[in-house]
Amino acid sequence: MGGDGRGIDTLLRAPAALASMTDTTASTDPEPAAGGAIPGLSRENPLAAVSPIDGRYAGRTAPLSPYMSEAALMRARTRVEVEYLIELAALSATPIDLDDDAVSALRDCYESFTGDDARLIKRLETEGAAGYAATNHDVKAIEYFLRVRLTEIEEEDDSTGHIADAETLFPWIHFGLTSEDVNNLAQRLLIASAVHEVLVPAIRAVRDALVELTHEHRDTPMLARTHGQPATPTTFGKETAVYAARIGRALGRVEAATDDLSGKLAGASGTYAAHVAAYPDVDWQGVSRSVVSRLGLDHQPLATQVNPCDDLAALFDALRGVNNVLLDLDVDAWLYVSNRYLGQRAVEGETGSSTMPHKVNPIDFENSEGNLSKANSDLSFLADYVTTSRLQRDLSDSTVKRNVGVAFAHCLIGYSKTADGLSKVVPNEVVMREELEATPEVIGEAVQTILRREGDTEAYERVKALSRGSRVDLEDFRALFDDLDIDPAVREELRALTPAGYTGIAADLAGSIDGAGVEADE
Question: Thinking of the domain 8-21+59-172, which architecture would CATH place it in?
Answer without folding.
Answer: Orthogonal Bundle (1.10)
